[in-house]
Amino acid sequence: RDAQRASRQTLNLTKGGRGDPRPFVSYVEAQNAAHWDRFLEALRSFTSREGHCRVPSRRVEGSYRLGNVVQRVRCTGHFVRDSADRGRALQEMGFVFSEQGRKW
To answer: Measured at the alpha carbon of residue 82, what is the angle toward residues 43 and 64, in degrees to the nearest 5?
Structure first.
């Protein structure tokens, strides 16, 4: 129990001070936004170079495993499940959410 209290206090101190009722939520939201930005940057780089968003599953952009993340977006809705804006942004780029029915 003391460890939990210490952990909460540490989060509070790093995310706005004591008494902040949502430090962990804010931290998670910030991390999710940072991961989304990194994904979008890598996908835009790939798209501008290749001319499409059909990323091979093993594709790596720099040190970012873009192919793996694209598979997660397609299979589980990662990043876009709770955000229609993100889904629209990907569709506008030409991102294909289901490759099964698409002819190459």
So the answer is: 25
